[in-house]
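Input/output pair, single chain:
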Amino acid sequence: MVNILSSLLPGKEAQKLKIESWTDIKRNGPAEKTFTSFINPDEFTLNYTVITESNNAAGANGSAGGFLGTRPLEVALKFFLDGTNANGVKLDVPSKIKEFYEAVGYDGKKHRTCFLRITWGHLTWLRTNQYEFDCELKTTSIQYKMFKNDGTPLRAIINATFAEKLQAAVRQAEERNSSPDLTHVRIVKEGDTLPAMVNKIYGDFKYYLEVARINNLKNFRDLQPGQKLVFPPFDKNTKPTDNV
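Output:
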């Protein structure tokens, strides 16, 4: 399992994490229900799991198993609820917990959980739809930390895991990791060159100057590790730019 930590884009104002809910996987139109975090999580992890064959070939010891696929991306979040007014903001903890379950929980009409979309300002998820994580609730638990004399909770932590849930057409496109028909976001690693990155995505070096122009690169040879680059889809008949 590989843990991938997404990060806020520099220079963007932090916003409250939001979970929107629909009863239809297409997620068209305004959300039917919404949960907004009281305090933003201080960390979260995206989990990406590769599935391989566990049985070795006859007569082979320790050989690499065949690739079988990947499991849906998962994200684990903690939502801290504080009804003590310690930070100057009033909160009714039971009502906020009810808001969470109504947004993410069971849909009686469809007899299944709702289809969700998590957004957090300009946080990038490094997916095709880079600023949104389409998913469904996988597991959740609540840890109560403080109570009034009558037993009403004053502090609680909601622990929730969400599994990626996409429309079939979107999922199939997502699985074509090198598809030139999708917009890609890549993080530059040590030793990366723009022509090589372009060739990996589009199967051709010819668009590297166009990608440099779109990303406002003054010198495409001077890439910095950690830098985010956008690789948009190009029409096959697009004539590459001759200069940046």
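The two ends are 39 Å apart (CA to CA). The mean pLDDT is 79.
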